Structure formats: C-alpha cells, structure tokens
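Structure first, sequence second, as always.
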C-alpha cells in the first residue's frame, strides 16, 4: 500500500485519468472528491463487497444450472 500525506485542496492522480482531492478534514473524518471517467466504477468498499457477495450468490443459484442446460 502506498501512503501519501495530503492537505485540504491537494490531490493525487492515478493512471493519468483519476484525480482524488481532499475536500475537507473534520476531526477523524476526511471528505474526498473523486474525478474519474464514467467508464470507471467508483464504490465505497463496503458497497463493493456487498456487490461481490451478491454476484457470488447469483452465480451459485439453482436457476443458473437450468439456464446452462438450454
């Protein structure tokens, strides 16, 4: 993991097309802004993990076997 220090209104650039900016620091909470192409999905980690779990459950559902037989 790369750890960087940034102050309010400072940014980092990832892969020439994703910019992450520190918008606000309040106590132990940091508000960030993310600018990325529409083709790049951006999720909070807990939401991403829920999506992955739902996809695994859907892939293992009994109805999928019936579709494979068609």
């Amino acid at each position: 993991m790369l750890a960087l220090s940034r102050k309010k209104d400072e940014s980092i650039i990832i892969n020439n097309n994703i910019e992450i900016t520190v918008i606000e620091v309040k106590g132990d909470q940091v508000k960030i802004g993310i600018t990325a192409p529409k083709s790049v999905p951006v999720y909070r980690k807990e939401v991403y993990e829920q999506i992955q779990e739902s996809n695994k459950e859907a892939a293992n559902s009994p109805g999928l076997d019936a579709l494979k037989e068609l």
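Margin note: Residues 45-59 form the longest helix (15 residues).
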